């Protein structure tokens, strides 16, 4: 091989030169399959699957030497020097993370623990994917993420966590904790996360979230579906655009609850225990809303909504009358609802129950299911 490279081993007395040659020979023995992106423009982890030529994915041998350039269990594509791919390799522990890494992918393994100081060498990490493992709160270092001052995306969904990881870096923009066993969100769990834009906590066992969302002034999306919430969060941030609360045990909505979030576009509260008695008169009369899902609750009347609403889902309730005042307070040529889709199927009303002025009020509706 040295002859093919046009060099002689005798030329390389210096250690650094020999190291270069070793790295070159190594690069020639490994094949990759990836698209040509520019350095630093790292696409999402789902796009990659790196396997060394002539090898099979299996449990690593702990006794083998670990390179400071790239752990032998993982792949470090030459064209993406800041990315570490250790996903889907049957790993049971976290390998060493080189200091140059900004993107580290450990998903789809059998990792059960994150030891204290696991990422202290790689404090420039921006993306850290640890989802689809078996990590428990008891085996996670108390300050394991504290030094990652540049971390923007943290994926810990589909694990065995029972507690919120704390403290979290203030740089965080996305926090993925869905499909765990978290039952409580402590008051300090989200403290200082002023850059957080998306919070995913669905499919947990959370009973109450209190006022933890209110200080998150950059939050755009929060997913708390499939939990055990008995009431809505105590206050929403003004930046919120998407709120998902379906499959909980919520019974009441305070008056003007959503008006504190003037950018709110989508609210989903299907499969709860909402009744008309538990709803304030203007609970959903918010001009910013475009889509409202209240299906599969216990409503007997159509709640009042804004004329700006475009999609309203009320199927699977106990509604027994069609009240046009729920959509239009005044019905004439100038005042009408912008509603396009209205679902009332699976209730106790018939199509012939629609009032005569319904077509004038709902003149934009292309779908009305009763």
From TrEMBL:
GO cellular component terms, semicolon-separated: extracellular space
Alphabetized UniProt keyword annotations: Disulfide bond, Extracellular matrix, Glycoprotein, Leucine-rich repeat, Proteoglycan, Pyrrolidone carboxylic acid, Repeat, Secreted, Signal, Sulfation
Main localization category: secreted
Record-linked Pfam families: LRR_1, LRR_8
InterPro entries per record: Leu-rich_rpt, Leu-rich_rpt_typical-subtyp, LRR_dom_sf, LRRNT, SLRP
Superkingdom of this protein's organism: Eukaryota
Residue intervals of the LRRNT domain: 69-103
Compartment list: Secreted, Extracellular space, Extracellular matrix
Family statement: Belongs to the small leucine-rich proteoglycan (SLRP) family. SLRP class II subfamily.
PANTHER family on file: AGAP008170-PA (PTHR45712), FIBROMODULIN (PTHR45712:SF4)
Protein purpose: Affects the rate of fibrils formation. May have a primary role in collagen fibrillogenesis.
Subunit text: Binds to type I and type II collagen.
Name by which UniProt lists this protein: Fibromodulin
């Amino acid at each position: 091989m040295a002859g093919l490279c046009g060099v002689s081993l005798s030329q390389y007395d210096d250690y650094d030169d020999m190291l270069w040659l070793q790295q070159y020979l190594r690069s020639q023995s490994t094949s990759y399959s990836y698209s040509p992106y520019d350095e630093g423009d790292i696409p999402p982890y789902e796009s990659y699957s790196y396997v060394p030529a002539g090898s099979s994915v299996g449990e690593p041998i702990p006794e083998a030497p670990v390179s400071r350039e790239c752990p032998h269990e993982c792949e470090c594509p030459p064209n993406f020097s800041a990315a570490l791919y250790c996903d889907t390799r049957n790993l049971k522990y976290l390998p060493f993370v080189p200091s140059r890494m900004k993107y580290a992918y450990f998903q789809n393994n059998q990792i059960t623990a994150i030891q204290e100081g696991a990422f202290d060498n790689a404090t420039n990490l921006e993306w850290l994917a640890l989802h689809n493992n078996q990590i428990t709160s008891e085996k996670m270092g108390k300050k394991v993420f504290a030094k990652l001052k540049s971390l923007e995306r943290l994926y810990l969904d589909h694990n065995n966590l029972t507690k919120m990881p704390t403290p979290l870096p203030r740089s965080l923009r996305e926090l993925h904790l869905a499909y765990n066993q978290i039952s409580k969100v402590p008051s300090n769990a989200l403290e200082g996360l002023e850059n957080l834009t998306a919070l995913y906590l669905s499919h947990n066992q959370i009973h109450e979230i209190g006022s933890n969302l209110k200080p998150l002034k950059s939050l755009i999306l929060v997913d708390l579906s499939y939990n055990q919430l008995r009431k809505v969060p105590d206050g929403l941030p003004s930046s919120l655009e998407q709120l998902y609360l379906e499959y909980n045990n919520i019974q009441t909505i305070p008056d003007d609850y959503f008006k504190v979030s003037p950018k709110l576009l989508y609210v989903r509260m299907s499969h709860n225990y909402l009744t008309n008695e538990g709803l304030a008169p203007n609970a959903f009369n918010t001009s910013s809303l475009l889509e409202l899902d209240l299906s599969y609750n216990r409503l007997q009347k159509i709640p009042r909504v804004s004329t700006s609403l475009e999609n309203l889902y009320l199927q699977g309730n106990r509604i027994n009358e069609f009240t046009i005042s729920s959509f239009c307070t005044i019905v004439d040529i100038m005042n009408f609802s912008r509603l396009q889709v209205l679902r009332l199927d699976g209730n106790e009303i018939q199509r012939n129950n629609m009032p005569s002025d319904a077509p004038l009020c709902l003149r934009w509706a292309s779908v009305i299911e009763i």
